[in-house]
Amino acid sequence: MMIEKIMINQRTVSSRPIKKRPKSIHHQIVETLGREIVTGGMPIGSQIPTESILAESLGVGRLALREAMKVLAAMGMVVILPKTGTHVLPRESWNLFDPNVLQWHVQFAFDDEFTKDLVELRNMIEPVAAGIAATQASPEQIEKIRQAYVAMVDAETHAEYLEADLRFHSAVLSSCKNRFIRQLQIPISEVLKVSFKASSTPGRDVDREHALNLHQALLMAIENHDPDAAVSAVERLIERASERMRNMRS
């Protein structure tokens, strides 16, 4: 199955092929249309082609297309209105905590504004969580943080390192006994995953050693029940990630 051209507002927008992968048809449609929206192929405020036209262009059935539109609507990317059709919503309506929406931004719309928003979100949540963790984390929770740190040290591949890094920060969030912050753990983990992938480079030992030192400082601050040191350590981690993202974009 392949999408070649979609007519939008009397103009033709070339799009990317739907790659064959072990995903359902409607998931493939969601990815194709989601990427088109994020990249501006389907501009904000525009009306998406009718179901019959779009189904023919994509080479898919109407039922699969209908299900895909429901997913995009749940992501806040489109609104389906009776009689007037389906329209692309403003970015402010998009669910940026959705893993797919985040990934599409990283791949196709990772601009300075998105980077700034990402860093600001981390600065609003992680230092507070780290400070609370330093005062309230149980021995078992601290051990999970330590195990994640050890896994970072022992990681043999870049993928293993990123997975352990995510576990480390997720363990810090989990050890914070604030119920509202803990509720944010899953969506924040998706944000962290994007941030880590965008700010890390495989095979640079000096960078990894520096990152490990910063993570160790955060671990020790939590172990020593020193909230000020924990806040300072996580702020340095976030600043490092921010600087690397800026450098990689320049």
Structure, described:
There is one protein chain. This protein has 250 residues and is mainly α. It has 11 helices and 4 strands, in the order E-E-H-H-H-E-E-H-H-H-H-H-H-H-H. It is elongated and about 65 Å long. The two termini are 37 Å apart.
SSE topology sketch:
Blueprint: E1 5-8, E2 11-14, H1 25-39, H2 51-58, H3 62-74, E3 78-81, E4 85-88, H4 99-108, H5 112-136, H6 139-154, H7 158-175, H8 179-183, H9 185-199, H10 205-223, H11 227-249
Antiparallel strand pairs: 1-2, 3-4
Helix pairs in contact: 1-3, 1-4, 4-9, 5-7, 5-10, 5-11, 6-7, 6-10, 7-9, 9-11, 10-11
Largest sheet entry:
2 strands, antiparallel
Q: What's the assembly state of these chains?
A: single chain
State the CATH class of the largest domain: Mainly Alpha
* Class by alpha and beta content: mainly alpha
Shape: elongated
Order of strands, widest sheet: 1-2
Quote the beta fraction: 5-15%
Tell me how many strands there are. Answer: 4
Order of helices and strands: EEHHHEEHHHHHHHH
**SS element count, helices:** 11
Rg, rounded, reads 21 Å
- Overall residue-averaged pLDDT value: 85
End-to-end CA span: 37 Å
CATH architectural grouping of the largest domain: Up-down Bundle
CATH superfamily of the largest domain: GntR ligand-binding domain-like
Helix content: 55-70%
Return the CATH topology of the largest domain.
Four Helix Bundle (Hemerythrin (Met), subunit A)
Low-confidence spans: 1-20
